[in-house]
Amino acid sequence: SVLTNVNAEFPSGKVSALVGPSGAGKTTLLMAITGDLPLSDGRVWWSDGPGQETPPDPTLVAWVTQTPSLL
Fold it and tell me: Are 54 and 61 in contact (CB under 8 A)?
């Protein structure tokens, strides 16, 4: 398994950065958050407070890759 025991909080309305060495699982984590990578175990949810959990909205996540490309 690539990612195990990951717990993270990204405050609403704030810019957050996910940094680490090559191969650490940054892109894998982002793909799991956006739903682009199926989970074999665990869950991802967003919350505006206790009891307000909702499925992730991939339109609210953006990332810049290390390799520039044209669409």
Answer: no
The H or E element containing residue 30 is helix 26-34
CA angle 57, 3, 15 (to 5 degrees): 45
pLDDT tens digits for the chain (71 residues)? Answer: 678 888 888 877 888 888 888 888 888 888 888 888 888 888 887 776 667 777 777 777 777 777 776 66
Instruction: Look at residue 53 and give its three-state secondary structure.
Output: strand
Structure tokens at 64: 């810049």
Predicted structure pTM score: 0.69
